[in-house]
Design a protein that fits this description.
This protein is α/β, with parallel strands linked by helices. The protein contains 10 helices and 13 strands. The structure holds zinc ion (ZN) (2 copies).
């Protein structure tokens, strides 16, 4: 019989989530992740921010309802990049809810946006060259959070990773999303070194991609510098992050890692769990977000 997987994120609201909601502290729900649609909601009090929506507006609304969240809470939307699994329903969401859509500053200038979409520019992506971590440029979304962005490397221009800083009931939480990138960078490590919850792509296992159903061109695209993160890359990033956190004395602060955008064809939850269990020696707790599943924050006592 197959071994039971221990590291799957919870589809039911966790105590930690419910407590944060009751207290008005920042928290989140993953509404779904993977190649058939990505949507993250970050909530503080009665306000919420959406990062990516690869689902139709209707389906997104159903997912919000299933999570017990009212779309009217949403004050702004953001996108990491313009692939349809991240932005299919985002413009409609922006128009229907009359909320601004924050995008890369170059994308904001493009004529691509449908009439009625309120497009706003994020700050220039952080590079950290010659700057301290604290010098990163951020954009303020009034009443909800500040947003820092950093470049990702993907086969569509102006792709971003994002770090949100949210404050509610005297508690500040930082959330980072790194998805759809063929490489990791110093800027990414720095932008999420003191983040409370990191949503990190763990797209494919190299061996499963090799023997999988994709043709050679698609395999090269996925594994290329402008494709997706392999489990080895994800693990190397986690170890770099751990080292920087030790150097920068961030270790007193708990950090949880949620694996996202896990390929259904070139990866399995079993394979990912096995490889991370075998290789990751850092201090962060981690959970896997299965394709399309709703995931709430892991419990405080959840060990690795
Ligand atoms: Zn994607
Ligand atoms: Zn993409």
């Amino acid at each position: 019989m197959a071994r039971e997987l221990l590291h799957i994120g919870s589809e039911a609201p966790t105590m930690r989530y419910q407590e944060a909601r009751e207290k008005g502290e920042p928290t989140f729900v993953v509404l779904g992740t993977g190649s058939s649609g990505n949507a993250y909601v970050f909530v503080v009090g009665n306000a919420a921010i959406v990062i990516d929506n690869g689902f139709s507006y209707k389906k997104w609304g159903e997912k919000m309802a299933a999570a017990g969240l009212d779309p009217k809470m949403v004050k702004a939307a953001l996108i990491t990049h313009t692939h349809s699994d991240h932005m299919y329903g985002i413009e409609r969401l922006s128009r229907m809810l009359k909320v601004p859509l924050y995008v890369h500053p170059r994308l904001a200038e493009e004529p691509r946006w449908r009439k009625g979409t309120i497009v706003r520019a994020l700050a220039e992506p952080s590079t950290y060259e010659g700057r301290s971590c604290r010098g990163a440029k951020t954009v303020l979304i009034p009443g909800v959070c500040t947003v820092e962005s950093f470049s990702t490397s993907h086969d569509v221009p102006f792709s971003l990773g994002l770090t949100l800083s949210m404050k509610g009931s005297g508690v500040t939480k930082r959330f980072s999303v790194i998805t759809d990138t063929g490489i990791t960078t110093d800027a990414m490590v720095r932008a999420c070194r003191d983040t409370d919850a990191l949503f990190l792509e763990a797209n494919y296992d190299e061996g499963l991609l090799e023997i999988g159903p994709y043709d050679d061109k698609l395999k090269a695209r996925v594994a290329g510098d402008r494709g997706h993160l392999s489990i080895s890359q994800t693990l190397a990033f986690m170890h770099e992050l751990e080292a920087l956190r030790v150097d920068d004395s961030c270790m007193a602060q708990r950090q949880d890692i949620y694996f996202i955008h896990i390929s259904e064809r070139n990866n399995t939850l079993e394979c990912l769990e096995f490889r991370v269990d075998a290789s990751y020696k850092g201090s962060s707790a981690w959970r896997m977000c299965p394709h399309g599943a709703r995931v709430y924050p892991m419990e405080v006592q959840d060990a690795r």
